[in-house]
Specification:
Layout lengths: L8 E5 L5 H17 L3 E6 L5 E4 L10 H7 L2 E4 L7 E3 L4 E9 L7 H8 L1 H10 L4 E2 L22 E4 L8 E11 L2 E9 L4 H6 L7 H7 L3 H5 L3 H16 L2 E2 L4 H15 L2 H6 L9
Helix pairs in contact: 1-9, 4-8
């Protein structure tokens, strides 16, 4: 249990939602943390499957025709890094939201703190995972899972493989209204054709499987069990109460999803629509 456990936290075992709503809910949780003194940890999935672009990623790196044909949504995150294909069944995502003045000011120290429950959850599943021991150079920069592996925030498995370990989770942080928001993608299973297909590139799927591993490949645990294990580890880390979104939070997220995270102006150009522009 972390030293943050003496504060008010809620654990959300969230239902599948579209990508724009998932990103909007993070900003709503930031407001709740500041205004209502309630911090959030949650585990969630994406429906439909979604490509989330890094904040500064060029929209021209996306194979828009492929995404449309495959029924894959596209949104843009507030965090940097490369694009991540979040498969409805092959991806497990999480979020941690807390006021900035309650967590380490040093970015690396904050990553270390916030990744504690993620590593604990993987360990409970039987996955030998840890922060990358060595850097690995980029294969394809627009893709989060194929860009350079950074020991500060990239998790690999099996950890004992050293330089031969493959990426299993990417994690990123940003600050919104004096709140730190960390979210991450954990690979439950591999969908290499789609991971490569969403990008405007001729990379072969084998390039992806050479760099990335998954919970299923490492230990074969059932997806529902993996999700519950991760959620429990997150909840115990901060002594969170089981909770859910309030109606007003869902309403605020729906508005934000419409004028920001689901709008072409944001997805392609990082522009936020005002209410009158919807």
């Amino acid at each position: 249990m972390t030293g943050l456990a003496d504060r008010s936290w809620r654990l959300l075992r969230d239902e599948p939602r579209d990508g724009a709503t998932q990103m909007a809910l993070e900003e709503v949780a930031a407001a709740t943390a500041l205004e209502d003194d309630l911090r959030t940890v949650r585990v969630y999935s994406w429906e439909p499957s979604t490509l989330s672009l890094g904040y500064r990623q060029d929209a021209d790196t996306v194979d828009w025709a492929y995404c449309e044909q495959a029924g894959i949504d596209v949104t843009r995150r507030q965090t940097g890094g490369g694009g991540i294909y979040h498969d409805r069944d092959a991806d497990i995502s999480y979020t941690i939201v807390a006021p900035a003045d309650e967590v380490p000011g040093d970015l690396m120290d904050c990553y270390e703190l916030f990744c504690e429950p993620v590593l604990e959850g993987l360990e409970r599943m039987g996955v030998d995972a840890d922060f990358a021991a060595v850097e690995q150079s980029s294969i394809y920069y627009p893709s989060c899972y194929l860009r350079d592996i950074n020991p500060a925030h990239d998790v690999v498995a099996p950890a004992t493989a050293g330089a031969d370990a493959r990426k299993i989770s990417g994690n990123a942080q940003y600050r919104q209204r004096d709140v730190v928001i960390q979210h991450g993608s954990i690979s439950y299973a591999l969908e290499p054709t789609r991971h490569v297909g969403v990008f405007e590139t001729d990379l072969e799927p084998a390039v992806f499987t050479d760099r990335v591993t998954s919970i299923q490949d490492e230990v074969g645990i059932d997806r529902e069990a993996a999700v519950n294990t991760l959620a429990t580890a997150l909840g115990e880390w901060c002594d969170a109460d089981e909770g859910d979104w309030r109606d007003d939070e869902l309403e605020a997220a729906a508005d934000l999803a419409t004028r920001k995270f689901g709008a072409d102006a944001w997805i392609r150009n990082r522009e936020v629509l005002e209410t009158s522009e919807q």
